Amino acid sequence: MSASIISGTEISKTILSEISKEVETIKASHGKVPGLVTLLVGNSPASRSYVTLKIKTALKLGFHEVQDEQPDDISEDALLALIEKYNQDDAINGILVQLPLPKHIDEDKVLNAIDPDKDVDGFHPINAGRLLIGGNAIKFPPCTPAGIQELIVRSGVETKGAEVVVVGRSNIVGKPIANLMLQKGPGANSTVTIVHTGTKNLDTHCRRADILIVAAGVPDLVKPEWIKPGACVIDVGVNRVGERISPKTGRTNAILKGDVDFEKASEIAGSITPVPGGVGPMTITMLMKNTLKSLKYKLGLL
Ligand code: NAP
User: Fold this and answer.
1) pLDDT digits (tens, 9 = 90+) for 96-136
2) Which atom of ligand 1 is nearest to the CA of 236?
3) Strand residues in the chain grouped as ranges (E)
4) Most buried pick, 22, 32, 134, 294, via CB within 10 A?
5) Does the pLDDT of residue 1 top 70, yes or no?
6) Does the active-site annotation cover 115?
7) Average pLDDT over residues 75-95
8) Calpha distance 44→201 (Å, rounded)
9) pTM (predicted TM-score)
10) Residue 220 falls in the annotated catalytic set
11) Of 119, 121, 210, 235, which residue is the catalytic one?
12) How far is the CA of 45 from the centre of ligand 1 (A)?
């Protein structure tokens, strides 16, 4: 069997175009556009490149974008004061603090200071609680899990009654995607199992999965023989396994690998996400969707 490829790159383009149309409609009807502030502390090249991509995407969509850069040695109090300033700013619907923060700053304290109604990353404990309650209580699902659910739904995979096995229980991927998939409603209603390093017989659990979501950060952790024939495999893992020089640009690029052996798994699975080009592009897209949602909540459109 040769699996169909679930392209996050393509599905992202479709969702971004839907967002762009909605932005235009709301601008015409209410004279408002979604406002996103990206807060970058310090000068880590990786963080800068992630933020740059978010800024570019927001600008392309016609968002109001505030780029706030702060030095490495900003005090925790000063950063908290900045968050409060954006909490009070009417033109801002979403506050994105690029992680990690420098060691002298308590990340949880900063994330918890964001107004939960502007927490478009969905990491605030109030939004984590809303996710657990489910249904209409969910406002801002964390971006990577929300992107995973979109990939599953938009590729036509049946989720109702499906056995979903999630490998990994992190707060940013494993736990929230498990919560999303067990919600009673469309695009979910699955029977969910979460496995982790304390799990016995990992392979037995994976073999049961109609939808296997792997977010462990261990290259090739999931063996091809652990995959149920015809299953949908979502590989969240992004592992740097080497470097190569691009013949086009002469730049050194990382060689990335997922948590699943893509080539061999493709012969067994029904559908599968590649790495890169699978889950990766969806995270920023869902950040944009959450920022638009935040404006819609404010305008009473949701
Ligand atoms: P994390 O916080 O390190 O959590 C990894 C989880 O996997 C933990 O719950 C861990 O179990 C479990 N695990 C690790 N090794 C295992 C093993 N051998 N058997 C069973 N379970 C195992 O990682 P994360 O932040 O969730 O990220 C996971 C992967 O997804 C990483 O490669 C990351 O780069 C990638 N990621 C990609 C995106 C994106 O594409 N946009 C976004 C986020 C993350 P314990 O809890 O027992 O330790």
Assistant:
1) 999 999 999 999 999 999 999 999 999 999 999 999 999 99
2) 30
3) 4-5, 35-41, 64-70, 94-97, 163-167, 191-195, 211-214, 232-235, 239-245, 252-257, 271-272
4) 294
5) no
6) no
7) 98
8) 40
9) 0.97
10) no
11) 121
12) 23
